[in-house]
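Ticket #4471: structure output looks truncated?

Reporter: J.K.
Steps to reproduce: submitted the chain below (478 residues) through the standard prediction queue, then opened the result file.
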Amino acid sequence: MSVLASLSIESIRAGLLTKKFSAEELTKQALAFAETENPKTNAYLTFSPERALAAAKAVDAKIAKGEDPGPLAGVPVAVKDVIVTRGVRTTCGSKLLANYIPPYDATAVIRLEQAGAVILGKTNCDEFAMGSSNENSAFGAVRNPVALDRVPGGSSGGSAAVVAQETALVSLGSDTGGSIRQPASFCGIVGVTPTYGRVSRYGLTAFASSLDHIGPFAKTVEDAAKLLQVTAGRDEMDATSSSSPVPDYASALNGNVRGLKIGFPKEYFAGLSGDTATRVYQALDDLTKLGCELHEISLPHTAYAIACYYVIATAEASANLARYDGVRYTTRSTNANTLSDMYRHTRDEGFGEECKRRIMLGTYVLSAGYYDAYYLKAQRVRRLIAQDFATAFQEVDAIVAPVSPFPAFKIGEKVADPVAMYLSDIYTITGSLAGIPCMSVPCGKTSDGLPVGLQILAKHFDESSMFRLAHAYQQATH
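Returned output as attached by the reporter:
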């Protein structure tokens, strides 16, 4: 049994301050369990025991001196392998970066360790965060710890799996079109996509720069809020990070949601069926019992979200991934005699099929003669989708919806059908395009015992209201 099974951020801090255990002891036990259990899921790609133990000893030293060890003191954390870590291998799930050791830390990683967190290692993910099942990693698929024959979701499947498997207490993932919320739903945990710009992207390997977010996974809303509290805020190293003040998220977890106006978009519920529909509708009933007012709303441009997203995201990906050419930090092909051959062979041998598919699509929509017809039009549709949410939030305080049309599917089930795979993100892409905060909170299980997530969406930079609603719901429904 995991030493982390009954712990939370608060209980770890309390245990350290009362000398019930030391950060070093907790870290050693957590690492040993993670290394033993990891072959079942393949959720970790790299462990960082030296760095973890050094951080744990620093926490213990602060406590011994009577100093404040930080809000995340001794908390075992895992980090998605698209977020760079100084001196610790960062592969992005790709052959191209199989041996890449970054010379610097992402801002989010720096803030974690400044708060006392202990980074156990890096988690597996779809290559360059491109995927909805975590089957696109060059280092093998991740298995869902809830059901090992199922996917954990993607692209942050490894980060979700380690929390569900209790081989880390909390973790960081990244979300471009649902890559935090969908894995959280599939694995039965909490996953948060903050407002675009709330968390610095400095050190996050770019997939689609206008859509990428870093966000937390945790078993509870409270722990997720505490992790976001530490990582959020303006960063001079990221021009897109917001200077909007970061409120005290913990103070929002007061359980008082009576009178909140909650919208449920008819477009998200029209085709919903089966156990997922049953669980989500039950969640709506639970919210009314807590005193929330439910209102049917419309987000009329939802039907265009998938097409809009896969034009914008792939266009930005084709530009961002051009840097992986074998010249600087990537593995270089040896089957080339000229510079152009080296570029071509390096990319052909290094990129997986999904990356190639998206690079080609993105290059096409940006090409002469097609830019206006595809990319420019997609940006206009994106504005309409964002306006849908802005209009809705004039009437309601938050929006609730499904995370996915279905629970975790079997490994290999959708690999041969990219369109079917893309449609698994149909409910999460809209929030990403609008740049609003969204999250997944568990709302029960199917008859097969597979988790189902409830998605909660809020106004820009209103994570507090989102957390308040999610925490009240989680407390009421256990």
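Triage note (M.O.): checked the attachment and the full token line is present. The CA atoms of residues 283 and 443 lie 6 Å apart.
Status: closed, working as intended.
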